[in-house]
Amino acid sequence: MGIYLDNSATSHPKPAEVYDAVIHTLKEVGANPGRGGHKPSLRASRIIFEARELIATFFNAERSSRIVFTSNATSALNMAIKGILNEGDEVITTPLEHNSVLRPLFSLKKSRSVEIKFIDCAPDGTIDPYSIEKLITKKTRLLVLNHSSNVIGTISPAKEIFSVCKRHNVLTLLDSAQTAGVIPIDVMDMNIDMLATAGHKSLLGPQGTGILYVKEGINLKPLIEGGTGTQSSSIEQPVDMPESLESGTVNTPGIAGLKAGVEFIMRNGLKNIRDHEIRLNKMLIEKLSDNKKIILYGPKNPEKISSPVSFNIKNLDCSEVGFILDEIYDIYVRVGLHCAPLVHKLIGTFPQGTVRISVGYFNTEEDIDAVVKAINEISCKV
Questions:
Q1: With contact defined as beta carbons under 8 Å apart, do 136 and 154 qualify?
Q2: So what's the pLDDT on residue 258?
Q3: 220 and 247 fall within a common domain
Q4: What is the pLDDT, as a whole number, of residue 137?
Q5: How do residues 124-172 score in pLDDT, each as one tens digit?
Q6: Among the options 121, 165, 318, 339, which is catalytic?
Q7: pLDDT of residue 227
Q8: What is the pLDDT of residue 232?
């Protein structure tokens, strides 16, 4: 096995407890939660209930019923965006957003005449939280914010921005796909009305898992309707949470694994995990900065970013760098636009993209030394 440095796409490896929870649920539980009164079904329901309770505690949600399980962050973001915006609404967002936000918004611009406004960002992705006030009007319904860029890692001042939104009665949606599990998030303290995140990144769960938190009092139009295991006599979708947004069989083995991942984080300490990633990124940024052929993007302070560090080697296409790292050195990174084209226009790397290194909790200082050595060798041949 080589050196895996693509944790912003999905974390790998997972804690042993995550694998064990998935396999146990598949082999020993097996049943469909909430769709039967027999013992295996009740055991499956217990897994889902306990996972929902744990995640509500983790994000300080007021009730666990406000936690909805989805298949990924993309589905959670679509649920929130398409469930809250109406004909003619205005929405404010940033150039830092992933296509999981941009594509639903531009789809609604066509179908519901939603107006999209963008917050100004500095070239390193930093935002003045008070600059948004000039964008807010009486028609502004929602602000969607990327907590941290999946390209350059810049952490947005979510609490400050959302405080401005609260004063103007603008709803808030935080995309925490890159931060949940490594940066503290308190939905009550940060004025977060809706939170979308992936289960398979820094929360250390399996792929095919995601989370949507919806604050008490906010009602979303369901994106999908169908069987919920409750109120089966009615042909209308239930309105109670979380059933109103959770049609169909949930990913019980995946949610069991996600629960184990969150337990691992809570047991080992969010601060310890964050400090470890900061230490590795500090090494990475400092060592890459010594090479004059390398262009680094985003903040150079590792405390101002989450996991991703993006760079290019002068006069060498990023895809070639990624190919060489993979084929020659067995080092696995991500190259290209990373599903976030507007960020690349902001930093001047469109349409080529960047090489992205993203560390995780299980990476080591030896991994950083190896990737820096490889990059330096590649750059010497240009």
A1: no
A2: 98
A3: yes
A4: 97
A5: 999 999 999 999 999 999 999 999 999 999 999 999 999 999 999 999 9
A6: 339
A7: 73
A8: 75
Whether residues 225 and 258 share a domain: the answer is: yes
Last residue of a domain, one of 248, 268, 288: 268
**CATH for 254:** 3.40.640.10
Same domain, yes or no: 73 and 169: yes
- Flag whether 11 is in a domain: no
The pLDDT, as a whole number, for residue 34 is: 78
What is residue 156's predicted lDDT score, i.e. its pLDDT?
A: 98
Domain contains 8: no
Q: Which positions of the chain have pLDDT values less than 50?
A: none
What is the tally of structural domains in the chain? 2
pLDDT at 381: 86
**142 and 227, same domain (yes or no):** yes
Residue 221 and residue 352 in one domain: no
- For 59, residues 6+ apart whose C-beta sits below 8 A from its C-beta are 67, 180, 185, 186, 187, 195, 213
Let me know: does 89 contact 142? Beta carbons within 8 Å: yes
Q: How many CB atoms lie within 10 A of CB 209?
A: 28
Q: At what angle do helices 318-327 and 365-380 cross, to 10 degrees?
A: 120
Q: What is the pTM for the complete model shown?
A: 0.96
Do residue 162 and residue 260 come from a single domain?
yes
- Is the domain of 214 the same as that of 282? no
Tell me how far apart the alpha carbons of residues 12 and 124 are, in angstroms, rounded to a whole number: 28
In angstroms, rounded to a whole number, what is the distance separating the alpha carbons of residues 376 and 372?
6
Burial of 135 (0-12, 13-18, 19+ CB in 10 A): middle
Strands in 171-175's sheet, in edge-to-edge order, are 67-70, 210-214, 194-198, 171-175, 140-146, 90-93, 115-118
Please give the single-letter amino acid code of residue 138.
K
Q: Are strands 3-4 and 194-198 parallel, antiparallel or unpaired?
A: unpaired
Annotation says 339 is catalytic: yes
